[in-house]
Specification:
Length: 331
């Protein structure tokens, strides 16, 4: 594209780069943990120390409440002997012993993970510091109807005792099933939105190269006339009209690309917004239900950064196309 002016080259490169960014980020966000099992949408923390402490506290409170209800003279709870605490601690440790330490979820499947940490002493005071750590993953098969069913994940990974105490044995109530159905709908909106984003931007990429070729690399010049040299040496240059049919078809192509780029921004914004809102709802729900058991949901920062950077790139691409066409001074 040697015929481009410096500003035209800047616009051309910026348009191509932003389109490529949107396509790549859309693919990465859609495939996420299929590409990399550590690139996840959510992580459910199940650290054995936290879960054991939370379960122990809950069981102790339940036992104390139950005993108080049958013994009115002891309204402040029941004191525990050392042997009773030992038995309760062993029971709690047994319940969480075989469970994973976290569950990572993407759009299509989930993975369980465990980590081991070794320590060493440091300095004359003998302080303990982390020496090394390893993390192991085991992932479920990806499938289209997958949704982040955190209660089912707890049951599948040996934590039925938490479900029993957190939900009184009714962890598949009608309200929760409606919540899962809403998550299914949100997922369909996101997938459809970002499939459209990827397809639209691929079309824009193709149309960009076609457009620059058809207009002889003069997209930024929206004038209806072009300069042609005079046949007489020394005579001033004069303007001659560009062919109307070619000018009209080029203008339609440019406006079509700009409209398509706006559609990309809209699809990306809707998909990213509903998914992020759904994630905050899920995070708050799990905190309300399971925080006392040491379980929390952590949103995948890289995944959510990916979708919002993709939205930003789509918005930049729309500005690069729509700005010169619709906002520039036509004279």
């Amino acid at each position: 594209f040697i015929d481009l002016s410096p500003w035209e080259r800047v616009f051309f490169v910026a348009r191509i780069v932003t389109s490529l960014m949107v396509v790549i980020l859309a693919i990465v966000s859609l495939l996420s943990n299929i590409i990399n099992d550590r690139f996840n949408q959510y992580t459910l923390t199940l650290a054995h120390v936290d879960v054991s402490a939370g379960l122990f506290t809950t069981l102790r409170s339940n036992i104390a409440s139950s005993s108080s209800s049958y013994n009115p003279s002891n309204l402040n709870g029941v004191g525990f002997t050392a042997s009773e605490i030992y038995v309760l601690s062993n029971y709690v440790a047994t319940q969480v012993e075989g469970s994973p330490q976290f569950v990572a979820s993407g759009l299509w499947s989930w993975c369980i993970g465990n980590y081991t940490v070794t320590y060493r002493t440091s300095g004359s005071a003998g302080d303990w510091v982390i020496d090394a750590g390893t993390t192991t993953f085991a992932c479920d098969t990806a499938h289209a109807n997958y949704v982040f069913d955190y209660r089912d994940m707890l049951s599948a990974n040996g934590l039925d005792v938490i479900l029993a105490y957190a939900y009184n044995g009714d962890d598949r109530d009608a309200e929760y099933l409606l919540f899962l159905a809403a998550m299914h709908r949100t997922k369909r909106v996101y997938v459809a939105g970002y499939v459209c984003v990827g397809v639209f931007q691929i079309l824009i990429l193709v149309a960009t190269f076609v457009s620059y070729t058809r207009t002889k690399h003069r997209l930024l010049d929206e004038s209806h006339f072009s300069l042609t040299p005079s046949s007489t040496v020394g005579s001033p240059r004069v303007r001659s009209p560009t062919k109307p049919r070619k000018r009209t078809s080029d203008s339609l192509l440019h406006h079509g690309i700009a409209v398509l780029s706006l559609a990309t921004v809209l699809a990306s914004c809707v998909a990213s917004a509903v998914t992020t809102a759904d994630a905050f709802t899920l995070q708050n729900r799990i905190a309300d239900e399971l925080k006392s058991f040491g379980i929390m949901l952590v949103m995948g920062r890289r995944w959510f950064a990916c979708i919002w950077i993709g939205f930003g790139a789509a918005a930049a691409n729309a500005a690069l196309w729509g700005g010169p066409l619709w906002c520039a001074n036509p004279t």
